[in-house]
Amino acid sequence: MKSAHIYLTFDGNCKEAFEFYHKVLGGTLQISGTFADIPPGDDGQPAFPEDQHDRLMHVTLSIGNDIMIFGSDTGGEWSKTFIPGNNFSISLDSDSKEEAESLFESLSEGGHVIMPMGNTFWNSYYGMCVDKFGVQWMISFDMSS
Fold first, then answer.
1. What are residue 127's phi and psi, to 5 degrees?
2. For residue 119, how far is the Cα from the chain centroid?
3. Beta strands in the chain (DSSP E)
4. Largest CA distance in the chain
5. What is the pLDDT of residue 110?
6. Which of 4, 34, 51, 65 is the most buried (most CB within 10 A)?
7. pTM (two decimals)
8. Which contacts qualify for 73-76: CB closer than 8 Å, 24 or more apart?
9. Are 93 and 137 contacting, i.e. CB atoms less than 8 angstroms apart?
10. CB within 8 A of 143, min separation 6: which ones?
């Protein structure tokens, strides 16, 4: 496995939260995009309503050499289940597509799948699940490596 990181989720205030964490913790803040950057679905419709287009799709706060905190806003159907204080996942970056599949299969056993493993527009093989203990996981393999 390449790495593991904490991934925080917010309901529209991710940018504000990460600017605060950046001020407190220092490091380098990098915003990778907003919901407006997500390609439309197969039906040609936007992935999220226009009033959510300014929400952050992904942000990274790098602190030191090996410490990174990731984050994003939630939107659409996922906002309905957002619970402040329970808004984190553990993000695992795997060394291979096979390892990603194996991790996902093992971690989701007895739990449930949020997003099945599949290819994404950001060139990652990616999925999300909740394990049998209620912990949320994000599993990915960077297909450009």
1. -155, 165
2. 14
3. 3-10, 28-34, 56-63, 67-73, 88-93, 112-119, 124-130, 136-142
4. 43
5. 94
6. 34
7. 0.71
8. 73/9, 73/10, 73/11, 73/12, 73/13, 73/14, 73/35, 74/9, 74/10, 74/11, 75/35, 75/48, 75/49, 76/47, 76/48, 76/49, 76/52
9. no
10. 97, 119, 123, 124, 125
Q: How far is it, in rounded angstroms, from Cα 45 to Cα 43?
A: 6
Phi, psi torsion values for 27, nearest 5 degrees: 90, -160
Higher confidence at residue 18 or residue 40? Answer: 18
- Name which of 29-33, 39-43, 102-106 the model is least confident about: 39-43
Tokens in use for 120? 């994404």
Q: Which two tokens stand for residue 46?
A: 């936007």
Whether residue 73 contacts residue 55, with contact meaning beta carbons closer than 8 Å, is answered with yes
**Rounded distance, CA 74 to CA 55, Å?**
8
Tens digits of residue pLDDT in 51-104: 878 888 899 999 878 889 999 998 777 778 787 777 888 999 999 999 999 999
pLDDT at res. 117: 98
